[in-house]
Amino acid sequence: MRHNSYLRIAIDTGGTFTDCVWIERGRVRMLKVFSTPADPSQAIVEVLKKVGFPSSLILLHGTTVGTNTLLQRKGARVALLATAGFEDAIEIGRQARPRLYDLFFDRVQPLVRRDLRFGVHERTSSDGEILEAPSRDELASLANQLQKKSVQAVAVSLLFSFANSKNEIAIITALEALAVPLSVSHQILPEFREYERTSTVVVNAYLQPVMQHYLENLDQRVRPLGAGAKVFVMQSSGGITTLSAAAREPVRTILSGPAGGVVGAAAVARRSGYKRIISFDMGGTSTDVALVNGEARASSQSEIAGLSVGVPMLDIHSVGAGGGSITRFDSAGALRVGPESAGADPGPICYGRGSEPTVTDANLLLGRLQPHRFLGGEFTLNLERTQGLIADWLKKNASSFTVQEFAAGVIRVVNATMEKAIRAVSVERGFDPREFTLVCFGGAGGLHACELAKSLSVPRVIVPPLPGALSAFGILVSDVVNDYSRTVLWSISGKLPFDMLKREFIVLHRNAETTLREEGWKGAIRYQPSVDMRAIPIAVLNW
Hints:
Elements: E1 6-13, E2 17-24, E3 27-34, H1 40-51, E4 56-62, H2 65-72, E5 78-83, H3 89-92, E6 117-120, E7 123-124, E8 130-132, H4 136-148, E9 153-157, H5 166-175, E10 182-184, H6 185-188, H7 194-222, E11 230-234, E12 240-242, H8 243-248, H9 256-271, E13 276-282, E14 287-293, E15 295-296, E16 298-299, E17 302-304, E18 307-309, E19 313-314, E20 317-319, E21 325-329, E22 335-341, H10 359-365, H11 383-396, H12 403-425, E23 437-441, H13 445-456, E24 460-462, H14 470-476, H15 498-518
Parallel strand pairs: 1-4, 4-11, 5-6, 5-9, 9-10, 13-23, 23-24
Antiparallel strand pairs: 1-2, 2-3, 7-8, 11-12, 13-14, 14-15, 14-20, 16-19, 17-18, 21-22
Helix pairs in contact: 1-7, 2-7, 9-14, 10-12, 12-13
């Protein structure tokens, strides 16, 4: 079918389905299979076998492994090495209380237990001067303690290491013999703000063993399917990176799949002549929304699962409402939808294995889904089973709803949840949704598009071709992107010293070019410089 040419295939792994998109003879092709949550690579291999074996394969992958690991707290046993006295920075945080009047509010627990946080007697000044270097004896003792604690990964974050990384380098040199992944702040996030930097490095260390194992397993499974197969991973920033880079810095892949959706929605909207859009991606487990005002909004500081993350991410708001979201009655008798999901296994009732009502079941009962045309006709939804089990479920819960009334109520509740999410990225940030176009995609997006647009007074809705795989399409058309940053603290009087600024950018450019060439990129490199600045007024006392 294809000879002596690379086939680029984008695969986005979701909670319910794994979506595949590729271009063949100028046409966009799509394939969907059920996800395999226990080992996502199984579904990917199934997809590749159905597509056929190309002579050479480039796989672009959007993954939820990092996200799920964080949400489910199933990451590595991590130790943190910090400057002595600052070991508890990740627990103290910014002392911000998200819900001031909630007497039963529980703070998000840090990813590192107290007995696995170690202080190192060292100090670097804010201008990069080494005031105290860690002693060899102390580092040897720390290495022994870490070995006895059986840690699976180590995070290292010292004060002002962004100004001088010498002490951090001494630590990682002393710990290399442990043969565990090391996440070091001057490599991952050489920026100021100690809490955010430390939290980011800890998240990276927490994910590293899990992602390394998954990506290595995926690579081993994919390579036999195509000569010279190469695997790349989608980042939260909207660009792809190499498999080795994703395994080394998995913190950059937390919003891997949703980022592909935003890129794909923006690309489709531009082809339709619209630059101001709200992307609405409703899948099986969650709904992701983002606002694109000419270009996708990005943030260098985000909060994921209650944890501060300081790497670039597209500004995406997620809610636990999808096609597989489970419905229930709360203690007061009110109908609730999500955030729990039936996923791919057991799935909704209509899939033949599930036993709890979901949004997909409600759409089927209301005639919005055609049972015999689901998944391109490869899978038939069981309408009779759905009607019977939901009727029994309503009786069991002593509900007076008919099956149809219940289904309509589920749709109203889930629509309200998603409408709130859209308002969060638009109205709450000063944007009028009436000035934007709603781009709906994901397996369930088109089912709810018009009702949401009507309630928000959005004048236009775009439902693109192959909406169920638009996230994979976005991954397919994404560029390779690497982000480099550093903090510099200058005393400035008068004009901004552009010569000094230029020198800093030259250093970053050289680092970027060296890394990209080492990764095998031979094409042209486009740089996009940006500066975040702040001014701190200093009182003059002797005036």
